[in-house]
Amino acid sequence: MDKEPLNTKDLEKQVAAREAVKYIRDNDIVGLGTGSTAYYTIIEVAELVKNGLKIKGVPTSEHTASLATSLGIELLDMNAVEYIDVTIDGADEFDENLNLIKGGGGAHFREKIVASLTKKEIIIADAAKKVDQLGKFKVPVEIVPLALNYVVRAMAKLGGQGAVRMKDGKQFITDNHNLIVDADFGLIGDPAALSEKLNQIEGILAHGLFVNLAAMVIVGQGTEAVTYTK
Known about the structure:
6-stranded mixed beta sheet, 6 helices, 28% strand
């Protein structure tokens, strides 16, 4: 049976992934993102490894680790590396300043640590992810469960209203055994300022605003790859 043809978004993700892996060099340590977009990167990296490229990967989630291992990519623990040469990951939104909202897949804490360790953070996306202003996509906030009500009240004071993420009728639990609240702050005029305010709320492990972490965003537009840099 023939494989189903990819839809436009998936084709654009694949185009972006194929462009992004060109930045990987032999013997690099490579951060491997999480989610539907990063999936295409992992497939491309695995093909390069199969053809002789020597790299070691650092996964951003248990799911990514499982997929990468199944495809023959050698992995390193995050604590075993002092830096990462290049990371390729996805985003739920990005703006012209390369600010991001991430965390639709619930892995943004580990993604943020990996991004912070990375010399070149490359984000790949389909064309619909580019926005004039962040905030249509809610900001995922990973919260230590015992602090949930306190954090929700503190975010409300900043204008953020949200609900605990659910999956299959149950509360979604992250790889770090925490909860996620998807917080709606409306359109975000100053992502850096909101990021800093959220960083000051005790009980938040990580939020999905990524500021000054991406070196470039590669977008698939039809069959072409378009690169955005600051």
